[in-house]
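Hi, here's the filled form for the chain we discussed.

Project: internal
Contact: R.S.
Residues: 530
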Amino acid sequence: MIQMPITPAARRIRRVALGDFVHRSARKFGERTAVVDGDTRLTYTELDARSSRFAHYLLQTFGSGRQIGMLCMNSADMVVAYNGIHKSGNVWAPVNVRLDAGAIEYILRHAEVSAVVVDAPLYADPALAAMLQGLGVPLIMTMAGGVATAPGATTLAQAEADRSDALPDLDIDDNQPAILMYTSGTTGNPKGVVHSHLSVAAAILGNASGFAYVETDVFSGVLPLFHCAQHALAATAHAVGACIVLARAFVPDEIRALVLRERLTVFTGLPMMYGALLADPQFRCDSLRQCIYAMAPIPKPLIAQIAERMSRNVVLATGQTEIYPATMMFRALEHPELDANYWGTSFIHCETAVMDDEGRLLGPGEVGEIVHRGANVMLGYFKDERATAEAQRFGWHHTGDLGMWGPKGQMLFIDRKKDMIKTGGENVASVKVEAVLLGHPGVAGAAVLGLPHPHWIEAVCAFVVKKPGAEVDEASIVAHCRERLGGFEVPKLVRFVEALPATATGKVQKHLLRQQFAELARQAWGEEVV
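And the returned structure, exactly as it came back:
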């Protein structure tokens, strides 16, 4: 057996470090545009230089190996800052800025941050400002032009001033923590997910290969960069030398104009975003070569519209905070016989299986938990050894999703384990009922869950958002479902709501619906239930 000790020189030469991707693209594509943010355009030379300058500030001020919190909306400054954190060997800890101040404080304290990078416009919120002042750590202000900053804070421009443009010269180990990103907290307090430079780099390289990205691609940046999906795509774009066009909010008219003006080639959005863009019958785009959707299935009629007016390369991409995206992809137009809940096949960097509760791998047609293994899986949960051990049982990462292998080796997503409804001795997949509801012409959004019932144990309950101007009532919803579902799958309670509670990335927070409507359900069960 060959014994080859890894020398310091070899370790440096062979290192995998996230900050190196921008640096390498700058060497190859220096004058290409890396980031578009409104009127701001950064070339690769500028992005590399600015992020290196910020890295040197962090190293001089805090050293390496610290958690650096971030409260930022999508911006060129944000891209500069997180790349600087990576280059300095510190750990990027982004936080969902749409959370309330109390939830943000919980994450920042749990993450043990040594400093927080925060947008100056966000700091204008008195509750957020008071929380950050109480946190007692240094603040670095981004997007500070013309905006009052926090007392004693350093602006990003000040941090960069008079510092070296050179890539910092320091050792970064492949498995050194690079990102501490918190789950969306759909069931309680969010958990801190620790990713290494290697795990994120594996996803980046797998995405570049699996999606066949090149330096001439122009990506959308509509989803928030503090979420793993948009960050993974931005990092992939910068690894191949492509451009990303950022937006801070989804305003359909503005995004349609942005897509056409910047001639995007890759658009990534939630299903409702595609519906909103295509609500304008005049909207078409001939530059797009790929449309990615995530977080929820898209009904076949909308897939057909995307294919006709945007791109025929329509792809569902899946992943989790714990398994840096993407893990699987499904090309809907290549499998017209399969329904919207198929997740497809794995990327080259990720192996996928279906497992029962005893750790036995299951074959086609057998329902079990979807499990993964590969270099893109997290190191573990921060300060939670028990949850880490539970997620890593039997040598695979456990997703909490139920699925089975269907035709042509395609993965069919059944439901989240915790969302499977047990009613009258039958199992009902909430996502199956939701897909039927979304096929109703008057339905814009739907969430299905089980609420306690004295006879059925749980009853299938549907919460529906109507399309503007739609004339739809409970009876028409139930009739629509009866034509397409088994009797035990038809909702026993339908309630119309103005909006569904959701995370920043569109994931419905069903635990909030359960809390909100538990009493309503108890009152309803006093009536006859068919």
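Let me know if anything looks off before we file it.
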